From TrEMBL:
Its main location: secreted. Keywords: Glycoprotein, Protease inhibitor, Secreted, Serine protease inhibitor, Signal. Residues 312-495 form the VWFA domain. The gene is ITIH2. This is Inter-alpha-trypsin inhibitor heavy chain H2. It comes from Python bivittatus. CDD domains: vWA_interalpha_trypsin_inhibitor. The lineage of its organism: Eukaryota, Metazoa, Chordata, Craniata, Vertebrata. Belongs to the ITIH family. The keyword Glycoprotein applies. It comes from the Eukaryota.
């Protein structure tokens, strides 16, 4: 509870210092606005059934039926997503109208997978199109301030969902206004546990006259399977179609209004969840697939059928008082499965810590059935209490591994890893996070990977991320709820099968440049390593790569050769293929790598340098990063909004202010819930609107609040096998 209070204060500060307001005024005569409304000139309504004069009359029958109590009509809700060789471009578009007699809020609230890059947002208000540009943060702010900025109202909203962030625009519009919102974002689909999983939140928030989700997959390697689990609900079985060809697939989800209804006479929608598309591609060679297109190459590496390497694994488990109850119960459950899954040639031990550090065994033991059964018993007997001494716990784990290594106990082909499970910041022993980070770095061997699982929001997740990234590992946030156990197991499964170690990706010097991370400590079964770079396609016919790696019984040298024009015919012919997919993948990897480097940069000068590089990348490739903001402008540039993100959130800790203290894994706020007051008058009487009113006589006022922010990137080790 104490933590929650503190967290709330942090949010309040963010409110005060970080959030700009986005009031915005359109001074149009009401009649003029009515003209703009003409669906034909505005291009707003595509249905030819609606003549332009219809809008003022009351709605047709179908619309009556979908009209909520608030008299807002959702004309259409459309999602279009295209995956070109793992690179997904997704567009979410809604067309909505205020049919009430008074002005009220129209809200566009979309969940965006954490790690995705937003690259475009447009808005059309009664025929006026606002377009966005991405600018350096302070430049965007000052440009915005010089325009017509007024007022101070906004709210920060963070999605509570594990892997999602929200982008939210809120618009207070007069009666009869029609608005079209459209957002574009892109992300590579990562391979985990032998599948690519593409998650598309489908949350119209209300019945939509026209609801449609289309996913196109274009994979030059060929698609081995496509699966669309029916998690939106049984009633949508007929609404989903899947067509799979050799290298292409199309998934469509198109429920009728009747299907959308929660019950046959309900006006609420049953569509509220994720459309999940999973697939994998064919793989012929162990050496991976080298794809070259438009001046960039991308190398996908995911060999199978290799003997797993033995692992030396230390579980370091926080058993401080805060773990008491559900979290500990779930952790015990997960650990019992994980221990049962250890292979007999693995070595392991368990450390549990509160203010003290205890070892189940003082040195690594072979994972025989007797030992794993004993370890399970030990875990079951733990009663959490006391403080949190992360520093000593990690140093002890490192010591055990180092000692085993010094004594020659470890198989030369084995992989060493530490898995830290914690739900809070240090409270005992060394408290300074940078010192802990330094201590770990100083003592840990270069070939040891540190994976950090942070349970709940009472833990400095950025710190865990830095620890993981700096030490060949990664961090993962886990919810402290009923899902904890399955999330922990899922994470463990991703790192439980090391197949290769010490991987080096080589390309001919002089032919390629700006290559992303090309050496990796480990490759885990079911994952995929991605390396990308620029290639001089004008002067090169073929590109060769040589991958060297250590397998369980041999040193591997894997060679592949790709024709620079090999994909041209296929990709140029396909109307869905994104001709820039290689460039976007390269930019994505590069930006994430820079962020990870910045995270661990030792000096302020270097940090600044990296910040500059990230900024340049976001401007060049038109993507929103923590150092840029999106400026949204009307055609004449007079009206402006700013989609800003809070700067460098120190703690990526909290769920949104609106849902604080109620960790719900599902999205807490329906996309179209009018978050503003039901009574628009109270909106207009707020301090913000008072400013809007000043000297504006009878003109029409639009008040726009736009809140957008971007993730701190979940996995800095992008492209790293995890
Ligand atoms: C943003 O989206 C709009 C509407 O689809 C489009 O016209 C515009 O070209 C896009 N801008 C960029 C930079 O992609
Ligand atoms: C829907 O129909 C059922 C029975 O036909 C009725 O009991 C219920 O009140 C109706 N609900 C609404 C929202 O009209
Ligand atoms: C910053 O970047 C410039 C050019 O990229 C480089 O020459 C310089 O050495 C860098 N400074 C630091 C402190 O890394």
């Amino acid at each position: 509870m104490k933590f929650l209070a503190a967290c709330f204060m942090v949010l309040q500060l963010l409110f005060a210092s970080e959030i700009q307001s986005f009031d915005f005024i359109v001074e149009e005569e009401p009649e003029k606005l009515a003209e703009l409304f003409d669906p034909e000139t505005s291009g707003f309504i595509s249905s030819p059934r609606l003549p332009s004069s219809r809008y003022q009359r009351s709605t047709d029958d179908e619309e009556e039926l979908i009209l909520g109590e608030d008299n807002i009509v959702l004309h259409s809700y459309k999602i279009q997503s295209t995956i070109t060789s793992r690179l997904a471009n997704t567009m979410v578009q809604t067309k909505v109208e205020n049919r009430a007699k008074h002005s009220q809020n129209l809200v566009f609230d979309v969940q965006i997978p954490k790690g995705a890059f937003i690259h475009n947002f447009t808005m059309n208000v009664n025929g006026i199109t606002f377009t966005s540009s991405i600018k350096e943060k302070s430049a965007a702010r000052s440009q915005y301030a010089q325009a017509r900025a007024r007022g101070k109202a906004a709210a920060i909203l963070r999605s509570n969902a594990l892997d999602m962030e929200n982008f939210k625009a809120e618009l207070n519009v007069p009666s009869g206004t029609k608005v079209q919102f459209e957002i574009h974002y892109q992300e590579p689909i990562r391979r985990k546990l032998s599948t690519y999983e593409h998650i598309i939140p489908v949350q119209p928030g209300r019945l939509a006259k026209h609801l449609e989700v289309n996913v196109h997959i274009v994979e030059p390697q060929g698609i081995s399977f496509v699966h669309v689990p029916n998690i939106l609900g049984d009633q949508f079985t007929d609404a989903t179609t899947v067509n799979k060809g050799g290298k292409k697939a199309h998934i469509s989800f198109k429920p009728s209004v009747a299907q959308q209804r929660k019950c046959s006479n309900c006006t609420t929608t049953a569509v509220d969840g994720n459309l999940v598309v999973t697939y994998d591609v064919n793989r012929d060679t162990k050496a991976g697939e080298l794809e070259i297109f438009n001046g960039y190459f991308v190398h996908y590496f995911a060999p199978d059928n290799l003997e797993p390497l033995p692992k030396n694994i230390l579980f370091v488990i926080d058993v401080s008082g805060s773990m008491w109850g559900l979290k500990m119960k779930q952790t015990v459950e997960a650990m019992k499965t994980i221990l049962g899954d250890l292979r007999s040639d693995d070595k392991f031990s368990i450390l549990d810590f509160n203010h003290n550090v205890r070892c189940w065994r003082e040195s690594l033991v072979q994972a025989s059935k007797i030992q794993t059964d004993a370890a399970k018993k030990y875990i079951e007997g733990i009663h959490p209490n006391g403080g949190t001494n992360i520093n000593d716990a990690l140093l002890r784990a490192i010591f055990i591994l180092n000692e085993a290594n010094a004594l020659g106990m470890l198989d030369p082909s084995s992989v060493s890893m530490i898995i830290l499970v914690s739900d809070g910041d240090p409270t005992v022993g060394e408290l300074k996070l940078p010192t802990i980070q330094k201590n770990v770095k100083k003592n840990i061997r270069d070939d040891t990977s540190l994976f950090c699982l942070g349970i709940g929001f009472d833990v400095d997740y950025d710190f865990l991320k830095r620890l993981g990234t700096e030490n060949n590992g990664a961090a993962q946030r886990i919810f402290g709820n009923q899902e904890t156990s399955s999330q922990m197991k899922k994470f463990y499964n991703q790192v439980s099968t090391p197949l290769l170690k010490k991987l080096e990706f080589n390309y001919p010097e002089g032919l390629v440049s700006d290559v992303t991370q090309s050496s990796f400590q480990n490759y885990f079964g079911g994952s995929e390593i991605v390396v990308s770079g620029k290639v001089d396609t004008e002067n090169v016919q073929h590109l060769q790569s040589i991958v060297t790696a250590t397998a369980s019984d041999a040193q591997l040298i894997l060679e592949t050769l790709a024709d620079v024009e090999g994909l041209d015919e296929f990709l140029n012919k396909d109307k869905h293929a994104d001709p820039k997919f290689t460039e976007k993948l390269w930019a994505y990897l590069t930006v994430n790598q820079l962020m990870a480097e910045r995270n661990v940069a030792p000096t302020a000068a270097l940090k600044r340098n990296i910040t500059k590089a990230i900024l340049q990348m976001s401007l060049d490739h038109h993507i929103v990063t923590p150092y840029t903001a999106m400026l949204i402008e009307s055609p004449n540039g007079e009206e402006m909004m700013l989609a800003d993100s809070p700067q460098d959130r120190k703690r990526a800790c909290c769920p949104g202010a609106l849902t604080i203290g109620q960790p719900k894994p599902e999205k807490p706020i329906p996309a179209w819930a009018p978050l503003g007051s039901k009574d628009p008058q109270s909106v207009l009487m707020g301090p913000t609107a008072a400013a809007v009113h000043t000297g504006k006589g009878s003109s029409i006022h639009l008040l726009i609040l736009l809140i957008g922010w971007v993730l701190t990137h979940a996995s800095p080790a992008q492209g790293k096998a995890q």
